[in-house]
Automatic annotation (TrEMBL):
Native organism: Pseudarthrobacter defluvii
Xref: InterPro entries: ATPase_NBD, ROK, Tscrpt_reg_IclR_N, WH-like_DNA-bd_sf, WH_DNA-bd_sf
Secretion signal, residue range per the UniProt entry: none
Superkingdom of origin organism: Bacteria
CDD domains: ASKHA_ATPase_ROK
GO function terms (MF aspect): kinase activity
Domain HTH iclR-type: 20-59
Record keywords, A-Z: Kinase, Transferase
Name of the protein this chain belongs to: NBD/HSP70 family sugar kinase
Family membership noted in the UniProt record: Belongs to the ROK (NagC/XylR) family.
Length: 403
């Protein structure tokens, strides 16, 4: 067991500053009493931390104002507010064929977003890093923000990432994301870059702003092209020894599943197979070979028998997947996330009906409202957590006062 870290005055200051900033992120103007109630800090410590954060540019102290139309004895309470534009963070979703970058202020509000398709081919790490950097700079320009304002970056990749931020490149596909991105962007831009598995970030994002908000035991399954999951247990993200907790390769061994293909991929594949037969279907109205999951769901909503059959197969398959997750991890909630989530609500009832047949501990099932933003939302949250935990070490380039 590792030795406990001694509670030095410096560590206590860092923890206290992080706690205050975390509270301020979700609050408007607050008093010292408000901060004390939220953080459990003493009045003297709260005042000292707030004053320190004001000097450093993280907080703004607002002018004292007495209650309008009334009179109250004594000095008005001091009020503080987060300086949300003191810096920005970047959330990145780095896929095989697309890169998305979001610029967020210190409250987690999106200021700009840039997303570009990428033709991977045989290009090397240097070209991929240059492409990612270009998307990031485009997002910053859209946000009218200087690169020097970036306090932290978090990038989600479709590969396991260990606790040290290293990609576990034990498979060829995972190795495509072992780019050396953190040192490259540190050298080029001076940015601190945190790497994380995309499904883990999806779990953080949905628990922050999605269907799992406030739930401590949840599994979020990215379900569009490939299946992958992020696990939150007891309020903490689970990584595993080498970052592979939540990997679903075992589905190759599960009867009725057999691989890790996701809802969008299978809907497209099964639609193409149906079109190769003589079966009458509304899907023929679309260009052969170009039927996407959204069109299958739309045809099913109109009562098309072929599309309804595909949805039935998808529901049964996802029930088996969620059944194994519920058996092994026993979460309160399983969330289906990713770009396909916008259409997947129709699967909830048939999945839930089948679950009891596949597990003795069925979980509640929901669809994330975050759509294809789920990874970048989690990346922003991870970057904000880093900023708040390291606020005493970060120097703000320009602590801009909001208008």
């Amino acid at each position: 067991m590792p030795e406990p870290v001694p509670a030095t005055p410096q560590l206590l200051r860092r923890v206290s500053a992080g706690a205050v900033l975390e509270f301020m992120r979700a609050s408007g103007a607050v008093t010292v009493t408000d901060v004390m109630a939220a953080t459990g800090l003493t009045r003297a410590t709260t005042i000292a931390v707030c004053e320190d954060l004001v000097r450093r540019g993280w907080l703004l102290e607002l002018e004292n104002q007495r209650e309008f139309g009334g009179y109250r004895k004594g000095r008005p309470a001091r009020r503080f507010e987060l300086n949300e534009r003191a810096g920005v963070v970047l959330g990145m979703d780095i896929g095989y064929s697309k890169v998305t970058v979001v610029v967020s202020d210190l409250r987690g509000t999106t200021m700009a977003r840039s997303s570009r398709p990428f033709q991977a081919g045989e290009v090397g790490s240097r070209e991929r890093i240059a492409f990612i950097d270009g998307v990031a700079m485009a997002a910053l320009r859209s946000a009218a923000t200087d690169p020097g304002q970036v306090l932290a970056v978090c990038a989600g990749v479709a590969a396991p990432v260990d606790r040290h931020g290293e990609v576990v490149a034990t498979q060829e596909f995972w190795g495509l994301f072992d780019l050396g991105l953190p040192p490259a962007l540190k050298a080029a831009r001076g940015w601190t870059v945190l790497l994380e598995n995309d499904a883990n970030l999806a779990a953080l994002g949905d628990r922050w702003q999605g269907a799992a908000a406030g739930i401590d035991d949840v599994v979020v399954i990215l379900a569009s092209e490939r299946l992958g999951s992020g696990i939150v247990e007891g309020g903490r993200l689970v990584h595993g020894t080498r970052g592979s907790a939540g990997e679903l390769a075992y589905l190759n061994l599960v009867e009725g599943v057999g691989d890790t293909y996701g809802i969008a991929h299978l809907a497209r594949t099964w639609a193409a197979e149906a079109l190769a037969t003589a079966a009458p279907t509304a899907l023929r109205a679309f260009q052969p070979g170009r039927v996407e999951a959204e069109q299958v769901f739309a045809a099913a909503a109109q009562g098309d028998a072929v599309a309804l059959g595909i949805l039935d197969r998808l529901a049964d398959r996802m029930a088996r997947v969620i059944g194994t997750v519920a058996t092994m991890l026993n979460p309160e909630l399983v969330v289906i996330g990713g770009g396909v989530a916008d259409s997947a609500h129709v699967l909830l009832a048939p999945i839930s009906e089948r679950l009891a047949g596949y597990t003795a501990t069925p979980a509640r099932v929901a669809v994330s409202p975050l759509g294809d933003s789920i990874v970048t939302v989690g990346a922003v949250r991870r970057a904000l957590d880093y900023v708040e935990g390291n606020s005493l070490d970060l120097v703000l380039a320009a602590a801009a006062t909001p208008a």
